[in-house]
Amino acid sequence: MILKRIKNTLLSISAIVFLSGVGTVCITPPYALADTKKEVQTAVDDLSDGHVDGTNKIKSTIRDVINIMLFLIGMIAVLMIVIAGFRFVTSNGDSNTVSSAKNTIIYAVIGIVVAVMAYAIVNFILDNIA
Q: Please, are residues 17 and 78 in contact by the beta-carbon 8 Å criterion?
């Protein structure tokens, strides 16, 4: 009974998330995640030359990994916020459940902030490497 209720809840949350447009982020092509015109131009030049030197390839690989990780962290954080919001709404005034839901939301937001800061630091370092 409880497992069926949890399954139905998760399916409902998933449907709401994807129907609200958040799910469209999941199918964003990698080239749409490029930060600047310079990155897009560099990628086009690399493809047209047919080769990439070692440094650019390493930088590109690191950027791709960081972009994928940031995307996954964002997806997980949004999911955790939705789950915590659902727990908050269905807590029926139970102080333990309310505080647990609030903590989950706070930690999810902190996770997003740390991920964005790490992304900025890594990109700053990669842009300043000779």
A: yes
44-66 pLDDT, tens digit each: 666 555 445 566 788 888 888 88
- As a whole number of angstroms, the distance between CA 23 and CA 39 comes to 25
Q: pLDDT of 20-43, one tens digit each? A: 554 444 555 555 555 566 666 676
Annotate the chain with three-state secondary structure. CHHHHHHHHHHHHHHHHHHCCHHHHHHCCHHHHCCCHHHHHHHHHHHHHCCCCHHHHHHHHHHHHHHHHHHHHHHHHHHHHHHHHHHHHCCCCCHHHHHHHHHHHHHHHHHHHHHHHHHHHHHHHHHHCC
pTM score over 0.85: no
